[in-house]
Write a structure and sequence with these properties.
Helix content is about 40%, strand content about 15%. The chain has about 300 residues and is of the alpha/beta class. The chain has a single domain, classed as Rossmann fold, CATH 3.40.50.970. Strands 2-1-3-4-6-5-7-8 form an eight-stranded mixed sheet, sandwiched between helices. A hairpin with a 2-residue loop joins β7 and β8. α1 packs across α7 and α3 runs parallel beside α5. The longest helix has 27 residues. It is globular, with a radius of gyration of 19 Å.
Length: about 300
């Protein structure tokens, strides 16, 4: 029998309010498995406040604080200062925010938390739109994607802008650790969470979090879609420690991006030319990532 590499302890209660196949729910479950029970999570207005805290219940077996959508970075800075004042050095402080509450409304607080060198982990679970309030586009919504505010009828072609590169913004602040994670690869996910947990200083985790109703795919396909996202190069897996980048999954030849796009209703209006446009961008981004890794590996340690 194969040895289990993922911690067995469950810190998310069953029976919560997430949709079937919810990527953010999988993200939270795996995150807390890696962090353990000595964790306090601060969550802004987002899907997870609805999932976890319908009064008077909670879905988490760890401490959880609700905060305003723009304030996650400030909230975890305050929690860290309070924990330190109380002598609680073994408590991990985590902000767990969606892409809207990170890439857009909460960006200033995230920047402040990183600049202050807060000893905490900021997690962005990226479901690429404001899902809790009705699938509106966010800065992290990909180019061309359908949302309720970027329609695909009456001559509209989905979101006209590209996806905001939040990781590049974060890396400009020089965190001690930053990584991309995908619940479809739980061993890689857990290893990165445990590494982040054991470091001191500002850390950032970008988690791929598919949303079945928002992305228009069957809820049974969340893991398959997650694997396809990484193996096509749309969401590569890597980590950056002290400025050095390492890609943590290379599957040889990348799968065609069209396979990923065609698996989701939010891209059903795409033409072959649209798919080719996305393919060129993904290939260019992947090549830059490979070059960055090669440059970092060539640097003396």
């Amino acid at each position: 029998m194969a040895k289990l590499t993922i911690p067995a302890e469950e810190l998310v209660y069953g029976g919560h309010a997430a949709c079937p196949g919810c990527g953010p729910a999988l993200a939270m479950r795996l995150l807390l498995k890696g962090l353990g029970p000595r964790t306090i999570v601060s969550v802004p207005a987002c899907c997870w406040t609805v999932i976890a805290t319908p009064y008077p219940t909670t879905a988490l077996r760890v401490g959880m604080l609700d905060n305003p959508i723009e304030a996650t970075g400030a909230s975890i800075s305050g929690l860290r200062a309070a924990a330190d004042a109380l002598g609680l050095k073994d408590v991990t402080i985590v902000g767990f925010a969606g892409d809207g509450g990170t890439a857009d409304i909460g960006l200033q607080a995230l920047s402040g938390m990183l600049e202050r060198r807060t000893n905490a982990i900021y997690v962005m679970y990226d479901n690429e739109a404001y899902m809790n309030t009705g699938i509106q586009r966010s800065g992290a919504t990909p180019w061309g994607a359908w949302t309720t505010t970027t329609p695909t009828l009456g001559g509209h072609r989905g979101k006209p802008e590209g996806k905001k590169d939040v990781m590049a913004i974060v890396l400009a602040h020089r965190p001690v650790y930053a990584a991309t994670l995908n619940p479809a690869f739980p061993e890689d996910f857990d290893r990165k969470v445990e590494r982040a947990r054991d470091l001191v200083g500002p850390r950032f985790l970008d988690i791929f979090a598919p949303c079945p109703p928002g992305w228009k795919f069957d809820s049974s396909e969340t893991i398959a879609l997650g694997r396809l996202a990484t193996d096509s190069g749309v969401f590569p897996l890597y980590e950056i420690v002290e400025g050095r980048l390492r890609i943590t999954r290379k599957s040889g030849q990348l799968k065609p991006v069209a396979e990923y796009l065609r698996a989701q209703g939010r891209f059903h209006h795409f033409t072959t030319e649209d798919e080719e446009t996305v393919q060129r961008q993904v290939r260019a981004d992947w090549d830059r990532l490979l070059q960055r890794e090669l440059e970092d590996l060539s640097r003396p340690h």
